[in-house]
Amino acid sequence: MLKACQRACALAAMSVFLVAGSGTANAFTLNIIDYIDNNDAVGNYPGVGERTVTQDLNFNNPSDGVKVEAYGTLGANQAAIANIPTTGYPTGIGDVYAYLDGGGAGMGVCSGGLKSVNQCKTGSDDNVGVGANGQPGQTTEILSFSLDNNWDLDNLLFRDEGHRSDFYRNDTAGTERFIYVAVDGVDLDGNGASGVGDFVLFELEDLPTTQKDDLGASLLGWASIQNLSKDAFVHLKNYLPANGPYTQFYLSGIELSLPGGSTTEVPLPAGIVLLLTGLAGLGASSRFRKKAA
Predict the structure, then answer these.
(1) Which residues are CB-contacts of 168 (< 8 A; sequence separation ≥ 6)?
(2) How far is CA 172 from the centre of its chain?
(3) How far apart are CA 126 and CA 121, in angstroms?
(4) 49 in the Ramachandran plot: left (φ > 0), alpha (ψ -120 to 50) or beta?
(5) Coil vs helix vs strand at 99
(6) Most confident stretch, 6-20, 48-62, 237-251, 269-283
(7) Are strands 119-120 and 141-147 parallel, antiparallel or unpaired?
(8) Above pLDDT 90, what percent of the chain?
(9) Any bridge partners for residue 57, and if so which?
(10) Bridge partners for 228 per DSSP
């Protein structure tokens, strides 16, 4: 009798667990740093190493996987940005690339040419900044990416040129904590425009030094873009003041949700069925004990 009760109790407990776990937890983060640096046992992050982006980035997630298409361009070449979907990935030594930088950095832009296959020629030319020479007054670099399906874009995460998430630590001028964002087909500031003609300035969150190794600092004031269209590009560039230091950054993470609150977890009705089955087992066991008595 005791064993029967134990089995019924275990079934009931499992049922309660499944019911509690069958909510709408549908958010996940594409960890670009792990994609570059790590090679985990289940294959979520391949550990591709430092290299130019010459093909889609394939992330395995509970959501059946996400592909990211990414390009680097120079800000003066608006036509090149507009033609990204048709021109495809670059292949030349002197071309501009999206760039995967290792050692806890993320994805930036290489605009100063390659020293070898897939390797940026200038070591400091791998974040999103103002070009290979790194001097103010040059053309700013732009990192553009798109996703292979419609997702809710909940936020973006960034690290600085030192591969850290605490952007404010040395920013005494207050000019190294801002990033411009534009999204194809999305009016971010309500002025009726969108895409590369409508870059909107966002401030990064102030993470303390104790959180310098967090995946990245998020954008303050960002409102989740619901059901972002497949293949719509998100464009990122740095804040370049007339005087003083400027923001240099890597994209380290992309926070997404399944559109419409979809979920891949156990449906609630299935949990209810198991719960009722477990309770029925407890009731039967109790009646048996009473009869035996």
Answers:
(1) 177, 206, 207
(2) 28
(3) 9
(4) left
(5) strand
(6) 237-251
(7) unpaired
(8) 46
(9) 68
(10) 151
Number of Cα atoms under 13 Å in the Cβ half of residue 284: 11
Residue with tokens 């950054």: 249
Q: For the chain, how far is it from start to end, CA to CA, in angstroms?
A: 12
Could you tell me the two tokens for 86?
A: 């048709």
| 278 touches 34 (CB < 8 A) | no
In the block, which residue shows the tokens 């309660």? 16
Closest by CA position to 82, among listed 231, 195, 193, 229: 195
Find out whether 177 and 203 touch, Cβ atoms under 8 Å: yes
Give, in degrees to the nearest 5, the angle at Cα 225 between 221 and 231.
Answer: 135
**Residue linked to tokens 């194809």:** 184
Helix axes 2-20, 268-292, angle to 10 degrees: 160
Query: What pLDDT is stored for residue 39 in this prediction?
Result: 64
CA 9 – CA 21 distance, rounded (Å): 18
Other Cβ atoms within 10 Å of 289 Cβ, number = 13
- The CA distance from 55 to 123, in Å, is 22
Residues 221-240: what's their mean pLDDT? 93
User: Could you tell me if 149 and 230 are in contact, meaning their C-beta atoms sit under 8 angstroms apart?
Assistant: yes
Q: Which two tokens stand for residue 125?
A: 């030319």
